[in-house]
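User: Hey, my collaborator sent me this sequence without any context and asked if I could get a structure. I don't really work with proteins. Can you help?
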Amino acid sequence: MEYVVGAKADQRPSVDGIILQAPVSDREAIEAELPHALLQEANELALKMCREGCSKDAIPNRLVRPIFGRIAITAQRWLDIASPPPTHSGADDYFSSDLLDVRLKDTFGKLSPSTPLLILFSGSDLSVPPSVNKDELVSRWMRATQEGGGKVDRVNGGIIPGASHNLNDSPEPVVQDLVARVIDFIRRLDNDEFHKPDADAKI
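Assistant: No problem. I've predicted the 3D structure and written it out in C-alpha cell form, which is a compact way to encode the shape of the chain:
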C-alpha cells in the first residue's frame, strides 16, 4: 500500500495491478502480543524521542523483544507500525479494523482506476485478533476502493479459508486455491477486463 498511496507515490513508476496477500494490522498484532505496560512505555518513549530529534535512534530492546527478538527498531519506525492512540496516525497503519471510513478514503480510496486491486485475506492468519470480523473488514476495503473510483477483483478476492499468514503450514489445496485466484487475476488484467464498460458488473 505504501508504494501506491504513501508519501511521494505519484513519483513512483505505476504498476498494472495490486495484490494484497495476507494484509494484517501491525498495530493490532502488537497490541495482542505485547504486554500493555511495555506497549505504553514504548509508545511514550518513541514519541518523546521523535520530538527531541532522535527519530532514527533505536528504542530499548527490552521494550520490543517479545515481538522483534534481538532486532533493533527505530523510534520513527515504531510509531509507523504501532500507531499510538489517540490519532492512530502511523504511516503504515493501513489495515487496522478500527480505522474509520474517512481514513480508508485516504488510502484505499486513492487507488488509481488503472491499477486494479486483488485482496487475498488469510482465513487462519494468527496475526489477526479473533475479535476482527474478516469478511466485514475486507468488504470495507473493497467498498472504499470502489467509492474512490478504483477497481476491485470481487471474483477472486476475499477470504482464503484455511490460509495461514505465509501459507507455510497451509494444506496444499489451500495454497492452490490462492494460486488459482492470482492466476485468474493476472488473466483478467491481461484481457483488460477491469476497464471495459461493464466491468462493474463483473467485479
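In plain terms: The chain has nine helices and three strands. You can pass these C-alpha cells on to your collaborator as they are.
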